[in-house]
């Protein structure tokens, strides 16, 4: 799947991923009003409103981008109806030819980690039949429990041609409380980067990049520069662009000399673009068109910053 992602990045010339991480506050009133009249102000109504909101954005941007990322917490808060909206969105994105990253940040030990891996990336056996659960193409993984928590994911990825992105240096302000702690004179994120490279060394795709990727925030460009050197064959998922402060000029060192090696995420900067002054002309009903304009602007920003 890492090779599929790379080919789609090359085809679209857009090393970006749109984060479909909706809050109800992002959903325009005309969508919510219609759904609530039909289903009431219920969890089912919320799930349906989010699904319709997502579908509008996907229809508007799918031809511009290689991938989407779904933060599962934004769906889980609405219980089972929210997870139904999550699954409907995953399936629809795949129908549109998009690579789907499940931002699930799972990680445990032994059979529990294996169950997470199977549920999101693999297939579960029921009697004589096998079924895919959520069936994303990639999943984000928390490495806090060490190799025991990662190996089951790598195994499923190798079996099913899927991939993972392991948290290394996250974009949030307090990430340094642990990730910057010195161990034998070096910050923890450097040790983690080396471990990610080790976990992925036997899972290289035809393009030379590993199925085991890393998450490194755009808000820490200097750390990204160091980690790029430590993980030359690791694809980096870069959150923190746009709403969290990251800009195209911050991203140069996340990429390799081949112009590959990184994919940049923007979530609310795109899906809630219509709420920004720059895209206010589109209005609530033009929210999807505003998202398309924001994607185009992001592509141009990153393209201008990268060497050619």
Q: Can you walk me through this structure?
A:
- The chain is α/β, with parallel strands linked by helices.
- It has a single domain (2-305), classed as Alpha-Beta Barrel (TIM Barrel), CATH 3.20.20.70.
- It contains 12 helices and 12 strands.
- The protein has helices spanning 2-12, 29-39, 43-61, 73-76, 79-95, 110-121, 147-160, 176-179, 188-199, 221-230, 268-271, 287-305; strands at residues 16-19, 67-71, 99-106, 123-126, 129-132, 138-141, 163-169, 182-183, 186-187, 212-216, 236-238, 262-266.
- Strand 8 (182-183) and strand 9 form a beta hairpin.
- The model has no long low-confidence stretch (mean pLDDT 95).
Strand order of the largest sheet: 1-2-3-6-7-10-11-12
Unreliable residue runs: none
**Domain count:** 1
State the distance separating the first and last CA atoms. Answer: 26 Å
Tell me the Rg in angstroms: 19 Å
Number of strands: 12
CATH class: Alpha Beta
Overall geometry comes to globular
Q: How does the helix and strand content classify structurally? A: alpha/beta
Mean of residue pLDDT? 95
What string, H for helix and E for strand, traces the elements in order? HEHHEHHEHEEEHEHEEHEHEEHH
Percent strand equals: 15-25%
| Main beta-sheet annotation | 8 strands, parallel, barrel
CATH architecture: Alpha-Beta Barrel
Q: Helicity range of the residues?
A: 40-55%
What name does the CATH topology carry?
TIM Barrel
Full CATH superfamily name? Aldolase class I
Number of helical elements: 12
């Amino acid at each position: 799947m890492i090779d599929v992602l790379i080919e789609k990045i090359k085809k679209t010339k857009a090393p970006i991923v749109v984060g479909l991480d909706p809050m109800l506050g992002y959903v325009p009133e005309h969508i919510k009003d219609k759904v609530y009249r039909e289903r009431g102000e219920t969890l089912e109504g919320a799930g349906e409103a989010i699904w319709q909101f997502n579908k509008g954005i996907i229809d508007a941007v799918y031809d511009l981008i290689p991938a989407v990322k779904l933060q599962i917490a934004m769906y889980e808060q609405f219980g089972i109806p929210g997870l139904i909206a999550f699954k409907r969105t995953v399936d629809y994105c795949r129908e549109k030819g998009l690579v789907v990253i499940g931002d699930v940040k799972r990680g445990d030990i032994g059979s529990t980690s294996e169950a997470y891996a199977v549920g999101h990336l693999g297939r579960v056996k029921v009697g004589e039949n096998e079924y895919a659960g959520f069936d994303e193409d990639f999943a984000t993984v928390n490495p806090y429990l060490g190799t025991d928590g990662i190996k089951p994911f790598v195994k499923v990825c190798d079996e099913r041609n899927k991939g993972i992105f392991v948290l290394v240096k996250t974009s949030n302000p307090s990430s340094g409380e642990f990730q910057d702690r010195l161990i034998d004179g070096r910050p923890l994120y450097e040790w983690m980067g080396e471990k990610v490279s080790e976990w992925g060394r036997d899972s290289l795709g035809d393009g030379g990049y590993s199925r085991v990727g890393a998450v490194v925030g755009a808000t820490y460009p200097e750390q990204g520069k160091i980690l790029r050197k430590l993980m030359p064959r690791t694809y980096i998922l870069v959150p923190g662009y746009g709403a969290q402060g990251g800009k195209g000029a911050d991203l140069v060192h996340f990429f390799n000399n081949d112009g590959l090696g990184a994919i940049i995420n923007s979530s609310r900067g795109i899906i809630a673009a219509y709420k920004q002054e720059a895209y206010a002309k589109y209005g609530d009903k033009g929210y999807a068109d505003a998202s398309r304009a924001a994607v185009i602007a992001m592509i141009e920003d990153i393209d201008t910053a990268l060497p050619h």
